[in-house]
UniProtKB/TrEMBL annotation:
Domain of life: Eukaryota
Biased composition range(s): Polar residues: 1-13
PANTHER family assigned: HAT C-TERMINAL DIMERISATION DOMAIN-CONTAINING PROTEIN, TRANSPOSASE-RELATED
Compositional bias of kind Basic and acidic residues: 14-30
Organism whose genome encodes this protein: Aphis craccivora (Cowpea aphid)
Name of the protein in its database record: Zinc finger BED domain-containing protein 1-like
Region (Disordered): 1-37
Amino acid sequence: MQHTNVWTSTNDETQTKLKRTSDSITKDTNEGLNSGKEKKSKVATILDFSRRSTLVSQKELNSMIQNLVINASLPFSLVEHEDFKKLVTVGYNGCRVLTRKTLMKNIMVQHENLIQTMKDAFSKVEYLTTTADCWSIFKRSYLGITCHWINPITLERVSCLLAIKRFKGSHTYDILAKTMESVYLYFNISDKVIYTTTDNGSNFVKSFQ
């Protein structure tokens, strides 16, 4: 009995088709496996990110503490308090509380940068107005001055605090006048202030005569 070989030259086309189909299935399977590996890799990356010791850098934490002390008028000694240190180290694992000396240094740098920013802003406007008031508390006298102007580009009103200065002695007109003038000279705006709003106290009225 003679057997017929199905993989003869007469079936070459069928054999080629089967081979191509097999190669296609193998390729799709490999691509699926590779895709699964990529997805697992992405998931692992996200999980690794979530397991980081902290999502806040030391620099960002220092800035937040600094702003807290300034905006809430807290004492510099806050950063030396053991409970505050514990709060930060537990809440921001891997970070530490900056020292009091570093905090004070950073605030001074921030203050200098702010002053320069204000001076740059004043140099770009032609006219300014101010408000002034003085008061006493705990046997100490202070003078507060605010400044207001119109932004030449946006035409929006802008306001800022120029100074809260302590001065000794009575609230006499000459002391008030000298103190206000010293603030204007410091910011180079003496020739730009066109109006100043105060109360109607005789000392303020006389200081402008």
